Amino acid sequence: MTEVDFITKINNGDLKAFEDVFKSNYANLVLFANKFLNDVNVSEEIVSESLTFLWEKRETLAFTSSVTGYLYKMVQNRSLNYLKHQKIENDYVGYLIRNKLIDEVPEHPTDPYLEKEMAQQIKIAIDTLPEKCRQVFVMSRFEYLKNREIAERLNISQKTVERQITIALDKLKKSLEYILGAVLVCFL
């Protein structure tokens, strides 16, 4: 069967063709993702999500190369996005500690569910900030830009930048108080 025939079968919902893709690529894709992530569980999750995406969006996907090539590129992108997201979460927790918004994170092994919940709540808290406020906060805390640089990029005054950061910090502190309290209770 040619690659074009194979792609056509998947696009048309041929479950056998998809099973062949799954069986012949799953293990190698997990190993590939693990080279980036160094975490087999997360690698398996990313590969599973990628294969699920392939199946669910099969009718609308346009393959420029092979299905396997497409999957490797998708797994690579998702792995890199995961790492980028982890860095943002770690930077934010570090920011909270540096600015004494929370005490040091306990060194006890944590419940993975609790970690995931905390990371999700931090992301939600940042996402619920007003757009300009969120934009200024992210530029300040995650892109490490100075207030002057942010003001120049956004064509606003430095006072506005300072005010937006203060608003963001106040809102985040209020939003995260309950989740941080729950985390600390778990370690007492």
UniProtKB/TrEMBL annotation:
Gene3D superfamilies: 1.10.1740.10, Winged helix-like DNA-binding domain superfamily/Winged helix DNA-binding domain
Domain RNA polymerase sigma factor 70 region 4 type: 125-172
InterPro entries according to UniProt: RNA_pol_sigma-70-like, RNA_pol_sigma-70_dom, RNA_pol_sigma70_bacteroid, RNA_pol_sigma70_r4_t2, RNA_pol_sigma_r2, RNA_pol_sigma_r3/r4-like, WH-like_DNA-bd_sf
Keyword Membrane included in the entry's annotation: no
UniProt keyword annotations, A-Z: Sigma factor, Transcription, Transcription regulation
MF (Gene Ontology): DNA binding; sigma factor activity
SUPFAM superfamilies in alphabetical order: Sigma2 domain of RNA polymerase sigma factors (SSF88946), Sigma3 and sigma4 domains of RNA polymerase sigma factors (SSF88659)
Signal peptide: none
Biological process, per Gene Ontology: DNA-templated transcription initiation
Lipid metabolism found in the keyword field: no
Family (UniProt): Belongs to the sigma-70 factor family. ECF subfamily.
Name recorded for this polypeptide: RNA polymerase sigma-70 factor, ECF subfamily
Naturally occurring in which organism (per UniProt): Daejeonella lutea
